[in-house]
Design goal:
Number of domains: 1
Structural class: alpha+beta
Largest sheet: 5 strands, antiparallel
Radius of gyration: 17 Å
Order of helices and strands: HEEHEEEHHH
Bound molecules: zinc ion
Oligomer: single chain
């Protein structure tokens, strides 16, 4: 059975090749698990040379036995991709907020509902 993370990974993969003829490739990491390498969606755009725009500097590193990934960029040339890596959850939120909302809804419908209810309360109270 496909997990929710895998389902949403499938939805974002088609966008990870970037806009300049880059590629998103499967990669088997040291733990023997499948991850991906691709041009960084956050800092490839600010590279001046096409070769550098296409360069696969970002990874989705597979976690053992959890069907999840950590996003990591080697170049770290934007605020979004600097730091120690991001959970799949955060990566999804940054790369596609609409898809992220669907993900939350599917993951925990009650929490999703509460989040909107609370946001609406705040609106009425302010
Ligand atoms: Zn980057």
């Amino acid at each position: 059975m496909t997990t929710l993370n895998e389902k949403y990974l499938g939805k974002v993969l088609p966008y990870l090749h970037g806009l300049d003829g880059g590629e998103c490739k499967e990669k088997i990491f040291r733990n023997g698990l499948k991850g991906y390498e691709f041009p960084c969606p956050f800092c490839s755009d600010c590279q001046s040379k096409p070769k550098h725009k296409r360069k696969r500097v970002a990874y989705l590193l597979p976690h053992k036995e959890s069907f999840s990934w950590t996003f990591f960029c080697h170049r770290k040339q934007s605020n979004e991709c600097s730091g120690d890596g991001k959970s799949f959850h955060n990566f999804l939120m940054m790369i596609n907020p609409t898809l992220f909302q669907q993900y939350l809804k599917e993951k925990d419908p009650a929490a999703f509902f509460r989040q909107y209810r609370d946001a609406n309360y705040k609106k009425y109270l302010s």
